[in-house]
Design goal:
By secondary structure, this protein is an alpha/beta fold. It has seven helices and seven strands; from the N terminus they run αβαβαβαβαβαβαβ.
Length: 212
């Protein structure tokens, strides 16, 4: 029997969505779900939380499609609320380049095997700190290898975490992938997860990876 792939996320839903958020999920989300034809040269953020950094990316790169992948519907709804007018639900002009994949990013990549991203961001992934949960960690060698196959020439993967043991664990995965470390320094990227800083560390650490 084929081994079932572990899904690294838990709940798909948290608190009940507001009426406006439910409307956005029903009407806007289908319209901004990314198409395979839009992915080449795009910027991808995996696990965007409430979407603060996705919006920053959209402002910083108005000429590129920004794809946010997030399976947790409350985060998806939060991002759509922030990128639309409260009265009309119209997308603000500065966020017209945002696309949302409201599911596991691996399904997006499988559906677009030739897609190559300019950048792939993974900020503050769940560290699953208990030893028995280590197998649930997203950034294992297999997943990093999958991402490497979707990296454009000269592209980079940016990983940030405030959980230093997880950082070391990710670094240990890299020799088993086609990737190489090409940097470690980034300006601090603030999201609500960084603000919480459950690991109580001084600052996040970053890994910048490219194809070797």
């Amino acid at each position: 029997m084929e081994k079932q792939e572990i899904r690294t996320f838990g709940r798909r839903h948290g608190k009940k969505l507001s009426v406006r958020q439910q409307t956005l999920v029903a009407t806007l989300l289908p319209a901004i779900t990314p198409k395979s034809s839009e992915l080449n040269g795009a910027i991808l953020e995996i696990g965007f939380g409430a979407g603060e950094h996705v919006r920053e990316l959209a402002n910083a790169h108005p000429d590129k499609i920004i794809v946010g992948a997030e399976p947790f519907m409350n985060g998806v709804a939060s991002l759509m609320s922030a990128m639309t007018d409260e009265k009309t639900n119209a997308v603000f002009p500065e966020y017209k380049n945002i696309r949302i994949w409201a599911d596991d990013v691996r399904d997006l990549l499988r559906g677009a095997p030739d897609a190559e991203f300019h950048e792939i961001w993974v900020l503050h992934p769940d560290p699953w700190p208990k030893a028995r949960h280590e197998k649930r960690r997203l950034l294992n060698a297999g997943f990093l290898t999958l991402l490497s196959h979707h990296l454009a020439d000269g592209g980079r993967i940016i990983i940030g975490t405030d959980h230093w043991e997880y950082y070391d664990w990710i670094e240990q995965q890299i020799p088993n992938t086609p990737l190489a470390i090409c940097g470690r320094d980034m300006d601090m990227v603030r999201t609500r997860y960084q603000t919480k800083n459950k690991a109580e560390t001084v600052a996040p650490k970053y890994l910048i990876l490219g194809n070797a």
